[in-house]
Write a structure and sequence with these properties.
By secondary structure, this protein is of the alpha/beta class. The protein folds into 2 domains: 2-165 and 313-342, Rossmann fold; 168-302, 3-Layer(aba) Sandwich (Rossmann fold), CATH 3.40.50. It contains 13 helices and 13 strands. The strands form 2 sheets. The chain has a 7-stranded parallel β-sheet with strand order 3-2-1-4-5-6-7, sandwiched between helices. Helix 10 links the parallel strand 12 and strand 13. Helix 3 crosses helix 4. The chain is globular.
């Protein structure tokens, strides 16, 4: 069986999950990888067959998606060209992690496309969502359409929704409770982060920046460029973590049993949904780094409470097995339905 694993390259979560998904898919056939988009800080340790521009949202510097930079980088004709040229018909199955080029190419050419993503779980009716957000719901629904899905979320809200895939390098960490707090908020620039965190002068902050190539120290705040190994060591040894309301980062913090607070990006419906899900678990949420949020952060810093979840270690293997089994069953059913017409 030939499988095309299509990965969204906008955020680190898709890339980190693919590191565990790819070896599991290889058990069932030949696997090629397509990556679309940019802004991920992690690399894949596997060969990438196709790289396309895709459709990416660009992080801003003040807490949200930069609409202007996103629109400026959109290339609709390039997207349509990639949809036309990607040879999805050469594959028996497209396994799609919120990647639009192969999703639409597969739909147009009637190639089986199964979603294996967090976003597939987010759009499920049983998953928590904030009020409103009709535009975001439409984007999530039609951005990368699929024939069938298996998804990941903070809780198994439905039968095809699994707990998060915790990458093996995180599972191998030995967590310890240190005296610092780890911060990764890629939608904020360094000046905004330092200005906000400086209110808490008795707390030691280790900030990982997407906007700076040089490390620096300002009083109780250390800012360094994002690097996978350094970030994981900081997270494993921190007292708590202040993170964006993505999926993999908060899931890893919860797996390591760290005190967690999240800040969802503005104009990013998926993160608003994640924040709603984490708030339901008891994770504190603030919606901006403003003066109004200072009391909530102060209360969180003083608190000893943390959310404890149980994470299975073999989620990737289980999800891939169920996905491939469902695909094989649907393929056999399709062959059986066509046999009477062939005889």
């Amino acid at each position: 069986m030939k499988i095309l694993l299509a990965i969204q390259g906008t955020g680190n979560g898709h890339i980190s999950r693919a590191r565990d998904i790819y070896p599991e898919l290889k058990k069932y056939g030949e696997v090629h990888i397509l990556v679309s988009g940019y802004q991920a800080d992690l690399d894949l340790p596997f060969p990438v067959t196709y790289r396309v521009k895709g459709l990416s949202f660009i992080f801003g510097r003040h807490g949200g998606v930069s609409l202007w930079r996103t629109l400026r980088r959109l290339s609709p004709w390039r997207f349509l060209k990639d949809v036309y040229h990607i040879p999805v018909e050469q594959y028996d199955l497209v396994v799609n992690d919120f990647e639009p080029v192969t999703a639409w190419a597969a739909r147009l050419r009637k190639v089986p496309c199964f979603a294996l993503s967090h976003q597939a779980a987010v759009v499920h009716p049983a998953s928590p969502k904030p009020r409103g957000g009709w535009a975001g719901r439409i984007v999530l629904k039609y951005y990368a359409p699929f024939q069938d899905f298996y998804g990941f979320h903070f809780e198994p809200y439905a039968g095809k929704i699994f707990m998060p895939v915790i990458r093996k390098e995180v599972q191998q960490l030995e967590p310890a409770e240190g005296k610092h707090y780890t911060v990764y908020l890629p939608a904020y620039d360094d000046a905004s982060l330092v200005r906000f965190l400086h209110h808490f002068r008795h707390t030691r902050w280790e900030v990982f920046s997407k906007h700076n190539k040089e490390a620096f120290v300002f009083e109780n705040i250390t800012v360094r460029p994002i690097a996978n190994e350094a970030f994981l060591q900081s997270l494993a040894g921190c007292e708590g973590a202040l993170l964006g309301a993505g999926f993999e980062g908060p899931a890893e913090a919860l797996y390591l049993r760290k005190k967690l607070m999240v800040v969802p990006m503005k104009r990013q419906f998926e993160q608003q949904c994640n924040a709603a899900a984490m708030a339901r678990l008891g994770v504190p949420v603030i919606h901006a780094l403003t003066e109004r949020s200072l009391p909530a952060v102060e209360q969180w810093l003083r608190s000893r409470e943390r959310v404890i979840l149980s994470f299975p270690r073999e989620t990737a293997a289980l999800a891939v097995h169920q996905l491939v089994t469902a695909f094989m069953q649907q393929s056999i059913a399709g062959i059986n339905r066509s046999l009477p017409g062939l005889l």
